[in-house]
Amino acid sequence: MIPSLIANQSMHNSKKRAMELLDVLGLTERASHKPAQLSGGEKQRIAVARALVNNPYVILADEPSGSLDTKNKEELHNLFFKLREIMGQTFVIVTHDESLASLADRRINIIDGRLE
Predict the structure, then answer these.
(1) DSSP 8-class letter at 86
(2) CATH H-level superfamily of 2-115
(3) Cα separation of 12 and 1, whole Å?
(4) Most exposed: 2, 5, 77, 111, by fewest CB within 10 Å?
């Protein structure tokens, strides 16, 4: 909710939007948990919810799955493409992860500081 509150949204609207996003991300039952009580994958999905709460046109993600195990990494990658479909969201992802890069609609490589 915090980014929404910072954007001067009401407490009611901020909470409503946050709960909608938690539902989409499969985290409704974890809404009252503290960060220390969440898994790494859950923390990453919460970060995605925070990024989405103000309905941005584009989400910039820098190595979004770098700290996750294989299972949670795949779930997060699938989530990006699910959100693209259901919310029309655009993601610009910077990654060294070839499996994530191979899923993208467009791929731009930087080799020795030059765009390829």
Answers:
(1) H
(2) P-loop containing nucleotide triphosphate hydrolases (3.40.50.300)
(3) 10
(4) 111
DSSP at 1: -
DSSP state of 106: S
Task: Give the position of tokens 């915090």.
Answer: 2
* 3-state secondary structure (DSSP) of residue 59: strand
Task: Name the token pair of 41.
Answer: 């994958």
Q: Which 3 state secondary structure label does DSSP give 61?
A: strand
Tokens of 90: 């655009």
Structure tokens belonging to residue 80: 């990006």
Q: Are 3 and 53 in contact (CB under 8 A)?
A: yes
